[in-house]
Amino acid sequence: MIYYKTEEKEKGFRFYEPERNPDYNRKTEAVFAQCNGFLGIRASFETKQLDESRGTFIGGLYHKAGVHEVTELVNCPDVTEFRIRINGENLRLDSCRLTDYDRSLYTRYGELESRIGCEMKAAGGVTLTSRRFASVDNRRLFCHQLSVSCENGGILELSTGINGQITNSGVSHFDRMEARVFEKSRMFLECGCDDGQILSVMTVCSTGESRETAAFHLERRGIYQDFKKELRPGEVWTIYKYTLFYVENGEESSEKTAGQTVMEMTDALTEAQEAGFGGLNRRHREAFDRFWDMAAIEITGASKEERAAVEFAEYHLAGMVPWDGCSCSAAAKGLTGEGYKGHVFWDTEIFIMPFFIYMFPETARNLLLYRYHGLAGARKKAEEYGYSGAMYPWEAASSGEEETPLYAAIDIHTGKAAKVWSGIKEHHVTADIIHGLISYYQATGDREFMERYGCRMILETAVFWHSRAVWNEEKGRLEIRDVIGPDEYTEHVDNNAYTNYMAYENVKAAADVLASWKHPLADAYREEGWGGRFDQFLRCIYLPEPNGEKIIPQDDTFLSKKKLPDIGKYRTADVRQLILKDYSRSQVVDMQVLKQADVVMLLELLPGRFDAETVKKNVEFYEALNTHDSSLSLCAHAEAEAVIGEMDMAMKFFRQAMEIDLCEGYKDSAEGIHAASLGGILNCILRGFAGMKTDGGTYRFTPHLPDHWQSMRFSFMDHGKKKTAVVTREGTEITCTKII
């Protein structure tokens, strides 16, 4: 069930909390986060709560706090808190009686709005109203408006500023902080990491009162401005707060003259004050409207909740990717929380990138350039494991090196931390990245990218797969042994079908490159005999074929394992991974049970590889064994069911996927939204329901619309041309609207 209520506005939707429930504080902080691709700020209350997890995240700002720590996305200083005191009494929502409560996210523009009324002993009825947004017009800018009114009047004391005491679950990443005030108006906090990265935060507050006396105070790792105001009964007092975030690495900071960053931030904040909150909001909305001009998906016949969920997914996807550079990528939780340390997974290329390939290919290019710049780390990992070429990390951050923690959850039988095998054995990520690259090239024809970056990535990863395969003398074939496929309940298996087929596609792409690319690098590969080696790999690699019942074996042993007798208990459980409460991982590995789509993912990514009957039988067979304990599974099965025409099942999974971040489970999403699932929702709509696909030529559509949907309308980019598709049950009409 969806927990949040929705309201349709003239443009877009508003999600709002049905009531004040402190259990949902952390979940709502993530779900209602304000994100613009550079900056993500969790939707914590203006006043401090007993249960909260304040978070400010900047794309690409990673740091490792010590040799025994893991590199993670840094939780930066907080600028959203306001300490409020009226007639000597502190305003605390946890302890006062609420008389009014409305808190919402306007997903069309990523604006958080709230109106909270409460009763205070010393002040009577008090109302707080606020609006805030991370600007899309200037992605370094965060704007916040707060109004306070008091029924009986009284003395208002308010403090707000920059709180540098924020940590990543107790770990501080800044070893140096310097605070000061410029011209009795602008608060400034410079935060330094031991690797040379510098975060500069500057904020200015305005109340519109020209005779206002400025008062400031320092706290450990923080600076605050203090206001004192006598409120008349019913008077509304408003404060505007504008904050800029600048990040420099060691090289950038050394190149700048002293005070240059401060001057740039000062000029930007001066201009922001002159524009005012209303003017900045208009610019922000105009910039966001340009996004929606391309991204809007109109679905006639869909319910309000379905259309709102689509907008929610697109808003958060827009807020997690690097629009202006390639130094970072889309993290598994976007910029909404500390979950998974802010690391980048295969989620990006397989679940998130397709939306951007279709609608914003220049941003998909940025995501691929991030992987190109990670080649050094991929080469290092391959060498460490005894392989050749480039082997991409399972979890990546800034360096391109492997960042997966070695240990995580507790084994229920041993009581010890269980080893995380994904970073060691889940090698399919390398082929996943190349699949994303090939998909980008097929949709764009971006030859310049391939010449400068893509062909090298394809060749170096193909060399890895060649070194990864081993020869089975008895069976006369190459095999890929001891891996983990997408299904993470099945570890240390040989010939995972997904991995083998995706490796084949990776090496096939390399063979095609050597057959056609005229470049010194390709010449070197040809001279070293790689053309013949790739051809031999393609001839000899074992690709599991459907058996007599048309079932593709997930790996060499999966079909011979015992079935889980009470799998229904885990498929319908309210909590994820309940099976690990009853069985150890070593026990689960020996059962026919899946955490998420595996063979089904293969069928989606290589749609023309198998006939329709084989696809249908495998989707149905593996779904019955799937607990869907991964947030990646429901959207994948929704798309798969749509492709085979099982629309009741498709809509069942689609609705469940819609609810992953919006559901009633207050612990779900508390550490951040599920980025891949949101991307998967859009993949289901575009590839599943609209039946959209291309192999480098023209786009083709095979619609499978849900029964209650009449039509879909959306835009997409096709080799530099903006086109619009109108999809109905009868077919699809394509018009070219602009050449870009």
TrEMBL record:
GO terms for biological process: carbohydrate metabolic process. GO terms for molecular function: carbohydrate binding; glycosyltransferase activity; hydrolase activity, hydrolyzing O-glycosyl compounds. Residues 19-246 form the Glycoside hydrolase family 65 N-terminal domain. InterPro entries: 6-hairpin_glycosidase_sf (IPR008928), 6hp_glycosidase-like_sf (IPR012341), Gal_mutarotase_sf_dom (IPR011013), GH65_N (IPR037018), Glyco_hydro_65_C (IPR005194), Glyco_hydro_65_M (IPR005195), Glyco_hydro_65_N (IPR005196), Malt_Pase/Glycosyl_Hdrlase (IPR017045). It comes from the Bacteria. The active site is at 488 (proton donor). Substrate binds at residues 346-347, 595-596. Keywords: Glycosyltransferase, Hydrolase, Transferase. Residues 312-682 form the Glycoside hydrolase family 65 central catalytic domain. Residues 692-735 form the Glycoside hydrolase family 65 C-terminal domain. PANTHER family: GLYCOSYL HYDROLASE-RELATED (PTHR11051), PROTEIN-GLUCOSYLGALACTOSYLHYDROXYLYSINE GLUCOSIDASE (PTHR11051:SF8). Belongs to the glycosyl hydrolase 65 family. This is Putative glycosyl hydrolase. It comes from Hungatella effluvii.
